[in-house]
From TrEMBL, chains A, B:
It comes from Rouxiella aceris. The lineage of its organism: Bacteria, Pseudomonadati, Pseudomonadota, Gammaproteobacteria, Enterobacterales. InterPro entries: MadA (IPR005777), NagB/RpiA_transferase-like (IPR037171). It comes from the Bacteria. This is Malonate decarboxylase subunit alpha. GO terms for molecular function: transferase activity.
Amino acid sequence: MQQHSPTTKVWDTHRREKQRRIESVQAVAQGKVLPTEQITAILETLIAPGDRVVMEGNNQKQADFLSRMLAKANPEKLHDLHMIMPSVSRAEHLDLFEHGIARKLDFAFSGPQSLRIAQLLEDGMMEIGAIHTYIELYSRLYVDLVPNIALIAGFKADRKGNLYTGASTEDTPALVEAAAFKNGIVIAQVNELVDDENDLPRVDIPGSWIDFVVVADKPFFIEPLFTRDPRLIKPVHVLMGMMAIKGIYAKHQVQSLNHGIGFNTAAIELLLPTYGEQLGLKGKICKHWTLNPHPTLIPAIESGWVDTVHCFGGELGMEEYIAARPDVFFTGSDGSMRSNRAFCQLAGQYAVDMFIGSTLQVDGLANSSTVTRGRLAGFGGAPNMGHDPHGRRHPTPAWLDMIEEPDPMARGRKLVVQMVETFQAGGKPTFVEKLEAIDVAKASGMPLAPVMIYGDDVTHVLTEEGIAHLHRARSLEERRAMVAAVAGITDVGLGVDAKRIAELRRQELVVFPEDMGIRRTDATRSLLAASSVGELVDWSGGLYNPPAKFRSW
Amino acid sequence: MQQHSPTTKVWDTHRREKQRRIESVQAVAQGKVLPTEQITAILETLIAPGDRVVMEGNNQKQADFLSRMLAKANPEKLHDLHMIMPSVSRAEHLDLFEHGIARKLDFAFSGPQSLRIAQLLEDGMMEIGAIHTYIELYSRLYVDLVPNIALIAGFKADRKGNLYTGASTEDTPALVEAAAFKNGIVIAQVNELVDDENDLPRVDIPGSWIDFVVVADKPFFIEPLFTRDPRLIKPVHVLMGMMAIKGIYAKHQVQSLNHGIGFNTAAIELLLPTYGEQLGLKGKICKHWTLNPHPTLIPAIESGWVDTVHCFGGELGMEEYIAARPDVFFTGSDGSMRSNRAFCQLAGQYAVDMFIGSTLQVDGLANSSTVTRGRLAGFGGAPNMGHDPHGRRHPTPAWLDMIEEPDPMARGRKLVVQMVETFQAGGKPTFVEKLEAIDVAKASGMPLAPVMIYGDDVTHVLTEEGIAHLHRARSLEERRAMVAAVAGITDVGLGVDAKRIAELRRQELVVFPEDMGIRRTDATRSLLAASSVGELVDWSGGLYNPPAKFRSW
């Protein structure tokens, strides 16, 4: 045995420091309740320079009171914070960097703030740790990004800290657990404080995980990100939807799936009760969904197509409808929805047959990206769901159907479908020789191009021209020809000649609508189960309550 | 718009059915508390034939009171149950099938019960849904295996159902959430009932998620699965450990990792404070771990090598040690550990640089399996951690180091290391031309061979002969030669000649100990930081309290 002297190391520095900080605000706190108007000064006391701070910002739920108040902190007191944020979505998230309060950022998604992030980087006011998918970022909270502080949002809390997150729980449990069980400090903003646990609709997070609650100056901000107005669905989307249903969903027996948020997939949702019904597919496909509660799914649910939907997050206006459909949605004992982004991403990765989504650019090998010049938009959830998980071992018919040759050493594959029009609005080609992401990476000093979905994970490319069954490609050259065959008159599409296309069609490596018995002239908007938001409300029996901006039908 | 008639469908059948069942036991229940001695009759009432029943059986924590009592049910009342179990580890788990109470099984792991499962299958008394990894099985609870019933285990509960899971939380939250938020019925067995929440050490699961608690006839069963006695570590393990540390960990800057449970990796843990220290690697490698609390990690922790350890589950005897090291382990406000298998598997998949583990059989392309004839042992967690997650987007030095040519469209890779001796105990070759798993699949009617880790995910094979850097293989032929070069005198190893091996070594595709400056004669047990369980106890300052069977030093 090696010699070793008795350790004199202190092993509870984090716990002692947490205790010290909590005691330092005892004069202003009432138990766990912090006073709203003094919160900035309190944050300056509870947080220390250099801390790793998780800030809840999701697709919908935002700890926006806490982020606004933190941005008012004195940078002489609070500086060099390392912010960890699923979604960078509000102006004050970046004010933190401009004011010198925060220095480093690890994040997963930044929609509207992506331009400003690129600017802050260029100006040397921000350092980026890494850009993640949501689920990677949660994972690192338990490994090398353990937070000192978690600033999160809930709907209601009692004085013991028991938290009701509201009708969309989202990321909160994953963010809180890492801090609560590693001697971090958890501060929850809530819309309302109640005296007793019995006054809470339900408990989503136990009070012993929450150190402080503070009533926000106004309810947390929510945005309806997943509502697609059926009026904006074009006949080409209907055509592509018909191809998807007949040429992919039915062909491969897709029973569980995730949809992206584009108009293409909204069209599919609205075609199930019409075109899908005509094909006799009800009960055979699309039974289990990992999906935000898309309003365009209402007709399929009402028509009995959908067994279950587990949600990443919520969608404004869908609360009452969800609460009235507990056989389909996951709801609590109070009746309102329980979403959980961590588990839904896990399910979307490992438990579903298919991911189908849209993108902005696709190269000749089907690599894709939503990054365009000057924007660091992040990854969100698509790379997690849009890849073939090699760790999967349970088979389903669709997964096994991706195996071409009988071979016990083969693996099945997840279906990863890229569904795009060959040109974007404004005539910009979707199919390009080289992704702009490559230059963005160079300009921002990223080690690799921010590719959303890699071509080797893609099984199908679907355009208005047809479907390329890439899972059957036997070589890179063939894969390239198949992509080109459905790339229309883009430069990529012009790289394959008619003879090769005919040969690919003969082998059913590429199929066009007519090969599937789909007439382009049948693809009209009249096939949609609902053609406006108003008709979605009708389908819901008045339970769906669309936000004002969608109320113009 | 399509015509649709107002729906007359009932949308809360599950909720109504749950309510009906709960009311049916009100005469015997005291609030949420069920009487211990009547539990079989109550289960016959709360569960219905054909139900999907989640039964908590993990590596350690077992809802064994509930499984024993369910096995006593009358098969005329309870039959055709569909059991969903992370781990099938107890005799009564299979009695359920023999008695005709259960019919279908979805599971992840079956250690000692694997032979009997194969027998029940052959006798037609059991139908297998699928064999999963743990995390896939949790995922499906939110998609197509939503449970009607969850039977789980905790340490203590109060009368409102608030649950303290004990010093190892494991799978419980993942199993409970799916049932609790989809109108399933959750029944928790506990070792002890307390009157009030304040008498619980902490709350791991809120009372509103738990429908019933019942005090078990005896404390739930735990087995120390991850304790490796240093006395059984052989010099060859020391040699292989030295190669791993110098030739893989240091070479690729592995900072976060998961270890398997073999003596090989136990040797590495015990070499860090000695050999690792000599190489000046402290603080440079092995800082963050996703790992059960292996006792053999104690010397590395005490020597300051380890920043954090997040655990899948617990390990008997490590409770006090963990509670005294909260800077390293994840612990609750009460001081005891919080493990979480779902999050730890997620972290082990997406947030660590490396997985390293042993296996029973490896073929010429580095596909591996632990399945041997007649045993359906399941997958557990290895395939999840032992694959390259294509959904990962954040870079680390080790991950980027797997890229051979500079290319912005390249991806990094997770290090997946197979560490095996060329022969198993008893002279059975580890390297084989064909995995026995292929015949097992045929015999059991499985669609694919139960491969634990696929060769294309493996970056390194390490044997007592040397290291094959498979991440650098440029063709299948080269990969095969590299595997053969470290496969010793097995048939696979004899398939490559000395000249080719010399060429592979010259290109550093394969490295032998002498190529790394490691002398085989230095690999002695005296290098181990502890050579017995007693010395581990010494290192821990008496905090590690090994179970009786390890107390023979």
